[in-house]
């Protein structure tokens, strides 16, 4: 702690104090993978042990840090690294945030200036610190050198030791046990709703090596599981289970309700977990469904075992397309009113278009969906969305849970009050699904997600969402 005439500064180390782990490798690996690509990440993983061995010598103690910095950032645009620091790293920082240290910082007096000292480049730690520790907390870390908008991989200031040297008072605090409890989600300074990146697990060196060795078998499994989707539903379910793909369903309609649906299609409104939501719903229903999409890649359309219909983003035209599917064709229709996927236990705002389409003659069937895997996320914003399903099915034991809930009457009519009534129905369906899953309903939208993670509103060809609202 440094005293002055005006105020005092309280400095805390990030690694090993605020964070339970003192390892920097996971964060550099995430930058290398998400901003640089798999080859750069594999290079970092391969050379890291050598850097650690050489760094064991007293004269080269900083070598692992310098090597990781160079391998993960050299030649990368500053905007890409900044995006990873903003959209990917905070998730992993939060899961490792020590509850006792966070609470101690929260009790600091108003006259005390809080400083977080880190061995990471300041750029990587600052978004997390500002968002989840406090906007007024200063970050003391090394600076990355820039050349023509790209990082050189070298540090302008090797360490933040100069800050600690000016402290008038110093206290040596024995680090708590590594088993200290992480901060529970309920105490986060702000909710973690949006984040990006492919990796589910914390990428420590051995975990990364295991995942790398798994990839060849994972690719074979992914292709096999994709092909199983074209088999008759009963056989596909059995064979998918044999590969470790677990699918559970509840609330399946009876035969009588299916015969009713044959005269007029059923409108399913789902929360959105991955691109496979409509496919899994069709599988558990054991009958064809149609999914409406805004912008699906050609590859995703080619591997989809169900019919897909593109929408235009013109509200009136899209409503007519959906009505035609439900009434003229008499088919079951699946919509995801959130308009994009959400990984965390939150529901984004439901667009009321599906309720307007249903009108007062069509009930809506809320469908609660949960999905997950141990290695890879099946959704992305800044990455290649056409690989979303492939990555999800590369997990050793991916799982899906589908709960078909009781139909909700719409009765919104087509008059002047229809829009308000449609919004009320959409909010009601959101609450029903949220209550079933234990997810919190929010007013956040697809645009909020894409602006936060990617810096645009999610309508370009690479990052447009895959499900209609």
TrEMBL record:
Pfam families referenced in this protein's UniProt entry, alphabetically: Acyltransferase, HAD_RAM2_N
Transmembrane annotation, as ranges: 12-33, 45-67
Record membrane topology: Multi-pass membrane protein
Subcellular location: Membrane
Keyword vocabulary terms for this entry: Membrane, Transferase, Transmembrane, Transmembrane helix
Source organism, top-level taxon: Eukaryota
Residue ranges of every copy of the Phospholipid/glycerol acyltransferase domain listed in the record: 266-372
InterPro entries: HAD_RAM2/GPAT1-8 (IPR056462), Plipid/glycerol_acylTrfase (IPR002123)
Molecular functions (GO terms): transferase activity
GO cellular component: membrane
Chief subcellular location: membrane
Similarity field: Belongs to the GPAT/DAPAT family.
UniProt xrefs under PANTHER family: ANCIENT UBIQUITOUS PROTEIN, OS08G0131300 PROTEIN
Name of this chain's protein: Phospholipid/glycerol acyltransferase domain-containing protein
Organism listed in the record: Urochloa decumbens
């Amino acid at each position: 702690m440094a005293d002055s005439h005006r105020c005092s500064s309280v400095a805390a180390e990030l690694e090993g104090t605020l964070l339970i782990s003192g390892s920097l490798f996971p964060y550099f690996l995430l930058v290398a993978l998400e901003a640089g690509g798999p080859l750069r990440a594999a290079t970092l993983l391969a050379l890291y042990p050598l850097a650690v061995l050489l760094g064991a010598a007293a004269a080269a103690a900083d070598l692992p840090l310098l090597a990781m910095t160079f391998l993960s950032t050299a030649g990368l645009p500053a905007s890409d690294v900044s995006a990873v620091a903003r959209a990917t790293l905070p998730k992993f920082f939060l899961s490792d945030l020590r509850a006792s240290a966070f609470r101690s910082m929260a009790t600091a007096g108003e006259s005390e200036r809080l400083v977080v000292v880190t061995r990471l480049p300041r750029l990587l730690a600052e978004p997390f610190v500002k968002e989840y520790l406090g906007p007024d907390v200063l970050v003391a870390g090394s600076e990355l050198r820039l050349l023509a908008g790209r990082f050189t991989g070298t540090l302008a200031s090797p360490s933040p030791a100069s800050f600690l040297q000016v402290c008038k008072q110093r206290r040596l605090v024995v680090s708590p046990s590594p088993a200290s409890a992480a901060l529970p989600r309920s105490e986060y300074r702000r909710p973690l709703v949006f984040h990006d990146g492919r990796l589910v697990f914390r990428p420590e060196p051995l975990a990364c090596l295991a995942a790398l060795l798994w990839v060849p078998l994972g690719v074979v499994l992914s292709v096999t599981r994709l092909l199983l989707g074209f088999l008759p539903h009963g056989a596909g379910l059995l064979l998918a289970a044999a590969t470790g793909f677990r699918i559970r369903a509840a609330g399946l309609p009876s035969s009588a309700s299916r015969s009713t649906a044959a005269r007029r299609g059923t409108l399913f409104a789902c929360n959105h977990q991955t691109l496979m939501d409509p496919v899994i719903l069709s599988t558990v229903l054991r009958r064809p469904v149609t999914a409406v999409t805004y912008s699906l890649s050609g590859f995703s359309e080619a591997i989809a075992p169900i019919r897909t219909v593109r929408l235009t983003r013109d509200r009136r035209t899209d409503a007519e397309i959906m009505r035609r599917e439900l009434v003229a064709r008499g088919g079951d229709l699946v919509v995801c009113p959130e308009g994009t996927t959400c990984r965390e236990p939150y529901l984004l705002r439901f667009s009321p278009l599906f309720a307007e389409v249903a009108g007062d003659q069509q009930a809506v069937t809320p469908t609660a969906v949960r999905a997950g895997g141990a290695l890879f996320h099946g959704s992305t914003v800044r990455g290649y969305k056409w690989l979303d399903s492939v990555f999800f099915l590369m997990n050793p034991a991916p799982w899906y849970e589908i709960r078909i809930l009781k139909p909700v009457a719409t009765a919104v009519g087509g008059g002047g009050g229809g829009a308000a009534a449609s919004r009320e129905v959409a909010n009601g369906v959101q609450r029903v699904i949220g209550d079933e899953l234990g997810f919190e309903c929010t007013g956040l939208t697809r645009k909020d997600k894409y602006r936060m993670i990617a810096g645009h509103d999610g309508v370009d060809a690479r990052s447009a969402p895959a499900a209609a609202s």
